[in-house]
Design a protein that fits this description.
It is a single chain. The chain has 280 residues and is of the alpha/beta class. The chain has two domains: 4-205, Vaccinia Virus protein VP39 (Rossmann fold); 214-271, Orthogonal Bundle (Helicase, Ruva Protein, domain 3), CATH 1.10.8. Helices cover 38% and strands 18% of the residues. The chain contains eleven helices and nine strands. It has helices spanning 4-12, 30-40, 57-64, 76-86, 106-112, 125-138, 151-158, 168-176, 214-225, 232-238, 258-268; strands at residues 26-27, 47-51, 68-73, 91-94, 117-122, 142-150, 177-185, 190-191, 198-205. Strands 4-3-2-5-6-9-7 form a seven-stranded mixed sheet, with helices on both faces. α6 (125-138) packs across α8 (168-176) and α8 packs across α11. The two termini are 34 Å apart. The mean pLDDT is 94.
Length: 280
């Protein structure tokens, strides 16, 4: 497992500095790295998608667990380091993991094929939310995610109804998966140290199949959360939808549980035409 001095050396010998604009904060704490790998429960032959491998500290541990790693690295300098370190032991894609619609790029979709996989990554902060949302909504072959993300995003993922951070991503994570917060990671575990605390989160794919159009359901929830503090009756009227008899029109969207959003969607049925939004 790479030490901090080894990470520094890899960059310094190439005249490279961490790029703040790309969110390059390298995790070097070995205990935290082991925590991520253990939470992922990687088995021999598992297909693992890693986004933002950097110098390959986590990558090396995934390969040591005999996983088939598909790594995506936006930075050419880091991609060069990964290629030199691991060669054909992994599949490497140099480029953005998301396309213009903020969905998994077709190149990565093709590399994954029709195989079951999981995401295991220290995610760049700017791509974390749209990537996780895309995997939850549109990638049924993704059996889970074990990610290191901002603590703030982790809180939103696990937020209950009525909480100030409760929103679209909370509902999506609860309906399409099961969220577990593994633990927090302080800034000192990274180099350079970020200004925020991070968290390790595990999301397992829901064992209950969703009956209906996932995109349309997410579009409906997203539209209702645009006016989260207005009464649900007014929010539905804005969408030219009737208020079902089963629903109290004076309640606010932020008070609805994920299960209640699903029930509302099933009652409304085809009355709502989704916008196929980006859902970030």
């Amino acid at each position: 497992m790479q030490t901090l001095s080894e990470i520094r050396s890899l960059l310094e010998t190439r005249g490279i500095r961490p790029k703040h604009r790309l969110g390059q904060n390298f995790l070097h704490d070995h205990n935290q790295l082991r925590r991520i790998v253990e939470a992922a429960e990687v088995r021999s032959g598992d297909v693992v998608l890693e986004i933002g491998p950097g110098t390959g500290t986590l990558t090396g541990e995934l390969l040591a667990a005999a996983a088939e790693v598909i790594a995506c690295e936006l930075d050419r300098d880091m991609a060069s380091i990964i290629s030199e370190r691991f060669g054909d032991r992994l599949s490497l894609y140099q480029g953005d993991c998301l396309d213009r619609q903020r969905r998994l790029t077709p190149k990565l979709v093709a590399m994954l094929g029709d195989r079951e996989f999981q995401l295991v990554a220290n995610l760049p902060y700017q791509s974390a939310t749209p990537l996780m949302m895309d995997l939850l909504i549109r990638r049924p072959r993704c059996r889970g995610q074990v990610v290191l993300i901002q603590k703030e995003v982790a809180a939103r993922l696990a937020a209950p109804p009525g909480d100030r951070t409760y929103g679209l991503i909370s509902v999506v994570a609860a309906v399409f998966g099961r969220v577990e917060r593994i633990g927090d990671v302080p800034p000192g575990c990274f180099w350079p140290a970020p200004k925020v605390t991070s968290s390790v989160v595990r999301i397992r794919r829901s064992e209950t199949p969703f009956e209906g159009d996932r995109e349309r359901f997410v579009d409906l929830v997203a539209e209702l959360f645009r006016t989260r503090r207005k009464q649900i009756g007014a929010s539905l009227a804005r969408l030219d939808l009737p208020v079902p008899d089963e629903i109290d029109p004076t309640r606010r969207p932020e008070s609805f549980s994920p299960e209640e959003f699903v029930s509302l969607y099933r009652i409304i049925g085809d009355g709502f035409v989704g916008s196929r939004g980006h859902h970030e």
